[in-house]
Amino acid sequence: MAMAGLASFSNSLLSSQSHPPSLSHVWSLSPSPSQISLRTSFRSHPTLFTTHSSLDAANDTKQDTPSPIELRYAAFPTVMDINQIREILPHRFPFLLVDRVIEHNPGVSAVAIKNVTINDNFFPGHFPERPIMPGVLMVEAMAQVGGLVMLQPEVGGSRENFFFAGIDKVRFRKPVIAGDTLVMRMTLIKLQKRFGIAKMEGKAYVGGEVVCEGEFLMATGS
Asked: Do residues 98 and 85 make contact, with C-beta atoms less than 8 angstroms apart?
């Protein structure tokens, strides 16, 4: 009887060795530390294993392709258009040198632009072979932006009695040519209402670089 039981146990052992358990049986048994680590990692990081399709490749190609240059740069904002500027400044053609105001804090500061084109009437004489915007006209354009700051009810300025009184520490850093956009910032530094004198700081830029800067005096009165 004992011999029969031993033979039966031996046959079952040989049968288990000739037919190893399936993978599902292995995972259902006590897992090894490495199997536990793999299970934990997969549950904690479900994106550990990723797949790619042709659609992904197409999207990547679209992202790498730059947009057309005409769509990359936004236009300057418009706080005052040319009609609103003409309501404040008394200047007219050919001496109105401000095209648009892009930032305005009445009685404090303003930022405006002048689009410099080959059709400006000063280019035929300055200079025929190398069109450069005259420095005195850059200063005049900046003074007009100063007028937009000061000719406001908050300041008490009047277009009938407002004058460009003087300049100091003016420097021209780079030439301004046809095709440039002159961006001018004028900031009030000091105001003496008793004497009708305003001192302002001005800077003009092309492409983010300073091309002209200086200090300006504005006067109100007869």
From this structure: yes
- The phi, psi pair for 118, rounded to 5°, reads -65, -15
Compute the C-alpha angle 114/214/197, nearest 5°. 100
- The DSSP secondary structure of 159-221, one letter per residue, reads TTSEEEEEEEEEEE-S--BTT-EEEEEEEEEEEETTTTEEEEEEEEEETTEEEEEEEEEEEE-
DSSP class of residue 80 equals B
Local confidence band at 163 (pLDDT 50, 70, 90 cut-offs) = confident
At position 83, the amino acid (one-letter code) is N
Active-site residue, from 25, 91, 104, 126 = 126
The first and second tokens of residue 20, run together, are: 């190893």
Q: Determine the pLDDT at residue 193.
A: 83
What is the C-alpha to C-alpha distance for residues 217 and 222, in angstroms, rounded to an integer?
A: 16
Burial class (CB in 10 A: 0-12, 13-18, 19+), 151: buried
Please indicate whether residue 126 is annotated as part of the active site: yes
Q: Is 127 helix (H, G, I), strand (E, B) or coil?
A: coil
Supply the pTM of this predicted model.
0.70
